[in-house]
Design brief:
Elements lengths: L2 E5 L2 H13 L5 E5 L5 E3 L2 E3 L1 H11 L16 H8 L10 H15 L4 H11 L5 E4 L6 E6 L2 E4 H7 L8 E5 L10 H7 L2 E4 L4 H9 L2 H8 L5 E4 L2 E2 L2 E2 L4 H8 L5 H6 L7 E5 L12 E5 L6 H12 L5
Parallel strand pairs: 1-2, 1-9, 2-5, 9-10, 10-13, 13-14
Antiparallel strand pairs: 3-4, 6-7, 6-8, 11-12
Bound molecules: guanosine-5'-diphosphate and calcium ion (CA).
Amino acid sequence: MRIAALSGGVGGARFLRGLVEVADPSLLTIVGNVGDDVEVLGMHVSPDLDSILYALSGLHDEERGWGRAEETWHALETVSALGGEAWFRLGDRDLGLHLVRTQALRDGQALSQVTARLARALGLEPALVPATDDGLRTWLETPAGRFPFQEWFVARGHRDEVDALRYEGAADAAPAPGVVAALDDADLIVIAPSNPYVSIGPILAVPAIRAALERRRVPAVAVSPLVGGRAVKGPADRMLARLAGGTSPAHVASCYAGLIDALVLDEADADDTASLPVRPIVTRTLMVDGDARRRLAEAVLEVAPV
Ligand code: GDP
Ligand code: CA
């Protein structure tokens, strides 16, 4: 079975670790978010692609939830001591990857080419493709002003409420090579339990990607990132409350109107599905360990044609 999965960083990567264990990873294409990519210290950082690269190669830090295990921070300490830009946390091991990516981009390679190379070097079985090779950046409009994603998320600790999002460059962005083919050829389309606004939103803002989902002839299923109406981590619940008007499964599904046929939701949200316009699949969705991740991935596969 060929699967195409749209994913953000941490929540998405956690889910993908389960998916590659219950489905054939060589038939999986992951379309990653690039809306929160950032230039720091002269380097191009793709936090969501990196979370996926690290999680699927086993290099990730389980406790911190992002970055690499056994990380050290000497380079950043030096940057800080020298009065450099140190607000965005980059570990020593992590830096090596950013150096390689940045050089390749400067040499004229596309982000998708570099990403494929990194994925191969790290032994990933699925294909990992950025949504686009073109510039696409998420901006947040808040009562305190407009901020690029990382400034809002990291520097300001996502404390500002979000009134609106802008996916700069998305309207003119072309999908990276292979993205539309993966969606058109898939037997199942999956949206990971990622933040609908800042992780999946930028991917769906690329017109040809949205169009591929709209014309799908196979089931598409999303996994809710909420458990009991609350985000496991991060601002997804606050954003849904303010931008969609609530945190029920129907509110989550409203972010994907016309694009999904089923929503995997947690048992804790199961009594709130009356107005859900797509098929509910109820399971425990908190990915506490390998068993939980696999169980969640299996629930997603229930939607697949037999
Ligand atoms: P980011 O790009 O690193 O912010 O990560 P994502 O957007 O991919 O994932 C963030 C979302 O993952 C948050 O909204 C969390 O609620 C969700 N999440 C994290 N862990 C879990 C989990 O165990 N189960 C579910 N259902 N969602 C989770
Ligand atoms: Ca992200």
